[in-house]
Amino acid sequence: MANWIKAEVIENRRWNKDLFSLILHADVDPFTAGQFTKLGVEIDGKIIQRAYSFVNPPGAKHLEIYATRVQDGLLSPRLHALESGDSILITKESSGFFTLDEVPQSEHLWLLSTGTAIGPYLSILREEAVWQRFRKVVLVHAVRFSADLSYQAEINELQQKRSDQIIVQPFVSREPTMGALSGRITHALEDGLLERAVGLKLTPEKSQVMLCGNPQMVKDVRALLLEKGLEKNLRKKPGHITTEQYW
Ligand SMILES: Cc1cc2nc3c(=O)[nH]c(=O)nc-3n(C[C@H](O)[C@H](O)[C@H](O)COP(=O)(O)OP(=O)(O)OC[C@H]3O[C@@H](n4cnc5c(N)ncnc54)[C@H](O)[C@@H]3O)c2cc1C
Ligand SMILES: NC(=O)c1ccc[n+]([C@@H]2O[C@H](COP(=O)([O-])OP(=O)(O)OC[C@H]3O[C@@H](n4cnc5c(N)ncnc54)[C@H](OP(=O)(O)O)[C@@H]3O)[C@@H](O)[C@H]2O)c1
After folding, report:
1. Other C-beta atoms within 10 Å of 158: how many?
2. Does the pLDDT at position 46 exceed 90?
3. What is the mean pLDDT of the chain?
4. Exposed/middle/buried for 131, CB within 10 Å: 0-12, 13-18, 19+?
5. How far is the CA of 148 from the centre of ligand 2 (A)?
6. What is residue 180's predicted lDDT score, i.e. its pLDDT?
């Protein structure tokens, strides 16, 4: 049984029509960067609950959730409508194994995301461990439209602070965008464009890959990486591909 507590909405930062970030205050238990919590709303005596990754690093004053309003979704439109001063339910404990301590040591860490799934990476990247463990970190954020490339200020700040280690590669699939690759991550993996653009090769010897977001992207990219000789990362059999699917 989940242990539900109250979270106060400090701010609802709306990036565009659908994308938003909730800044929350709640007395949750300590969590590990990359983990998720559950948010809930009571409707007709039942708690409607969904999973959301933390964007903030552990220990931050406020919690942060990055989400999209899913048309006809049960919970996300309600979250989207929240204003500062409102409250919602959150679980005291966090969950999940999409964390850096589950990823074996290597030279390069590739963080691939679609849409709101950039969230857990921002949490991981704002802690020191990742910079100590990997020589290069590649952050890939794939979205439909350029207006969906949220968190640019935070990403620019990381690029300035970690200029010798981080490589940021946005993808915008549905309109030409300066500074972003066109189309999908999958196509750019198939024709080698992604590796050429970031200047690194994806190999089992040098790469660890985290995949997060759209489940079909996760499946398709995993299949392409398996062809390159990378393997699923399992606790009982360490490999190179660690995944989290959002639906
Ligand atoms: C481990 C985990 C972590 C998650 N973290 C986040 C997060 O940080 N931010 C977030 O927005 N969502 C996240 N999700 C998805 C979230 O739990 C909900 O499914 C989502 O908010 C939709 O809920 P809903 O009740 O409005 O829609 P539902 O009625 O549950 O409709 C679900 C449908 O919405 C679409 N959908 C769901 N999530 C997304 C998404 N993120 N982007 C695009 N389409 C989506 C899919 O088509 C899915 O079939 C996570 C899910 C999991 C399992
Ligand atoms: N983002 C918006 O402008 C918008 C507008 C209205 C509603 N919404 C809501 O948000 C949801 C969609 O959110 P989203 O745009 O963040 O997520 P998304 O549909 O997962 O798309 C994000 C990115 O992932 C790509 N992608 C999808 N499937 C893939 C696959 N199999 N392999 C590789 N790449 C893949 C998409 O490319 P493609 O473009 O080629 O699919 C897009 O670039 C909808 O369900 C809707 O509720 C969003």
Report:
1. 20
2. yes
3. 97
4. middle
5. 10
6. 98
| Span 178-187, average pLDDT | 98
State in Å: Cα 36 to ligand 2 middle. 21
Q: In Å, how far from its chain's centre is CA 179?
A: 21
* pLDDT at position 57: 98
Going 27 to 155 to 224 to 232, the CA torsion angle's sign is: negative
CA distance 113 to 119: 9
Question: Could you give the CA distance from residue 60 to residue 58 in angstroms, rounded to a whole number?
Answer: 6
CA distance 177 to 183: 11
Side-chain half-sphere exposure of 77, counting CA atoms within 13 A: 5
> Percentage of residues in the chain with pLDDT exceeding 90?
98
In sequence order, the 6+-apart residues with CB closer than 8 A to the CB of 124 are 33, 34, 99, 100, 111, 130
Domains of the chain: 4-91 (2.40.30.10), 100-245 (3.40.50.80)
Residue 59 has pLDDT above 90, yes or no: yes
Taking CB atoms and a 6 Å cutoff, what residues make up the pocket around ligand 2?
Answer: 18, 68, 70-71, 114-115, 142-145, 148, 173-174, 184-186, 214, 216-217, 220
State yes or no: pLDDT of 1 exceeds 90: no
